[in-house]
Amino acid sequence: xxxxxxxxxxxxxxxxxxxxxxxxxxxxxxxxxxxxxxxxxxxxxxxxxxxxxxxxxxxxxxxxxxxxxxxxxxxxxxxxxxxxxxxxxxxxxxxxxxxxxxxxxxxxxxxxxxxxxxxxxxxxxxxxxxxxxxxxxxxxxxxxx
Amino acid sequence: xxxxxxxxxxxxxxxxxxxxxxxxxxxxxxxxxxxxxxxxxxxxxxxxxxxxxxxxxxxxxxxxxxxxxxxxxxxxxxxxxxxxxxxxxxxxxxxxxxxxxxxxxxxxxxxxxxxxxxxxxxxxxxxxxxxxxxxxxxxxxxxxxxxxxxxxxxxxxxxxxxxxxxxxxxxxxxxxxxxxxxxxxxxxxxxxxxxxxxxxxxxxxxxxxxxxxxxxxxxxxxxxxxxxxxxxxxxxxxxxxxxxxxxxxxxxxxxxxxxxxxxxxxxxxxxxxxxxxxxxxxxxxxxxxxxxxxxxxxxxxxxxxxxxxxxxxxxxxxxxxxxxxxxxxxxxxxxxxxxxxxxxxxxxxxxxxxxxxxxxxxxxxxxxxxxxxxxxxxxxxxxxxxxxxxxxxxxxxxxxxxxxxxxxxxxxxxxxxxxxxxxx
Lengths: 145, 424
Hints:
The complex is a heterodimer. Chain A is mainly β. Helices cover 13% and strands 35% of the residues of chain A. By secondary structure, chain B is of the alpha+beta class. Chain B folds into two domains: 117-178, ATP-grasp fold, A domain (Dna Ligase, domain 1, 2-Layer Sandwich), CATH 3.30.1490; 184-423, ATP-grasp fold, B domain (D-amino Acid Aminotransferase, Chain A, domain 1), CATH 3.30.470. The chains are: A mainly beta, B alpha+beta.
């Protein structure tokens, strides 16, 4: 369940290009989007299974934005919900000014709703996950600057 | 088996091989085990959000935690392992001994619970037979244990043990067991299914230990005759049949002078299970999954044939003589291969061994037609095994192959520590 869209077409093209030219790694960057496709060649011993092409995509979300100074990361595993209950208005929107301690969203884990409070004050510039999306520990949820 | 997998991991293990190989992964917490691999709500949430049908608890961590097994079941997820009840019975060493003793399995002779004062201790010791071991009831790690070889030594040994127990565990309650001078650690691999089948898959000899940690395991044991093997195997299998035990389990015995003494039962798969896979040709993890799915074991007791000999070396990221842990970057890694050589490892060139967890980084399992050929193949495999950038116990395994006692199979659970003390 990768929490971001994978541009499979681009990756396929890069992989074909790699095979044709015999390169072992190609990285492509455009603005904040970055894709790296590399071929890991290792000894073929039993436990050292290395996929021929390892697509380590670093598009917008996880790797880059987890270290963004304004990133609010998930403290737990669960499902993200943006409103108190279905049909209710969302807790926050992009552009809102937030104070420390205000509820940003809910993460539900094992039928328990956990309100996630903002660790800082500022303006919400990005919301990185969608309503009902599963999130893992450490995953960036929003950017507050 | 065509089953999709989800790997759970802490932030420290984000680049671990199992995470890279699994179909999906979920980060469940920070590096500390308590907040990740021991974090039941996080693990259950990860199973819920990925729609997992079953959880394999692996080894250590929550694999023998009855409460966790119960919670998994309450969430309508299959726990690949035995029932919580059996985990509880075998998890408590006292009830485990009582349970198997009632089912006619031989146990280490001991006092019935704690002994109060010298008079009671003496009576218990005389009945058990000297030498005896006085053990702290709340103890562990070899602390609060004193040997008394005769009635004369008992008084002093008792007060020393009680003093140490009080200092280390805040509880001076002690019990007494027969002390075995040079036992071997022999464990029996067992399997049960929900159709009434209960089988044994032979033994593993795990006597090469340092501080109660196994370093080398082999099967079959050089010390057992076929008659002894079949007898203890049948007895152990019968015990789990009476219990209705499901899945994989291992009964650990101390073996001395032809006698077996039950020590404990591990209600999970063991680290050294590949030794049994090598000599029986049976895929134990596959059988675990079959049993957990409600299917029959894919074999009967008659189908179990022990073929050849297998030895497993546990390779730890530690200095080979000081045993100082050596986490860090693995700059070069080359695994041996060829017939009869298996490596179970998450290592790769460029992998950074984290400092937060166990130091075991690879298992080398070698199989051949007989023990002599197995030792020769093991020597060759060790010579080809390269781990560059961190200290490992590979040089220690090399040294063992030059030791006459190891080569002849003439060792017991104290042998390795004596060898290390002699040669340091």
